[in-house]
Write a structure and sequence with these properties.
mainly alpha; 4 helices
Length: about 110
């Protein structure tokens, strides 16, 4: 894995996270404001989809231990820059490292 691809992977994962778990979700016209429960369910679904995408990226690019760490750090920096709360980023990255970035490339 070339170091040059790490920023591209980080950018892609950051964009996907923003789409799947937006910081400020928009409502379609005519819809009532979602409840806290609806927001939580949508966020959890988005994070789960993101974790599956992160695993696919790891396998696609055959990231080793160092590559995975670089992607995690780069993603953390990008998500902080976009305004996501640090506590949320910490939870998402821990989940990503524990589930999607663990194990062999199989």
């Amino acid at each position: 894995m070339s170091k040059a691809k790490i920023p591209d992977i980080c950018d892609h994962l950051c964009e996907m996270f923003q789409q799947l778990a937006p910081l400020h979700p928009t409502l379609p016209k005519g819809r009532k404001k979602p409840s806290e429960k609806d927001i939580k369910l949508a966020s959890e679904r988005g994070v789960q989809q993101f974790l599956e995408l992160a695993r696919a990226e790891r396998l696609k690019h055959q990231l080793g231990i160092i590559g995975r760490a670089r992607v995690a750090l780069g993603l953390q920096q990008r998500l902080l820059q976009t305004g996501y709360p640090a506590a949320l980023i910490k939870q998402v990255l821990f989940a990503m490292l524990a589930s999607a970035f663990v194990g062999d490339s199989k």
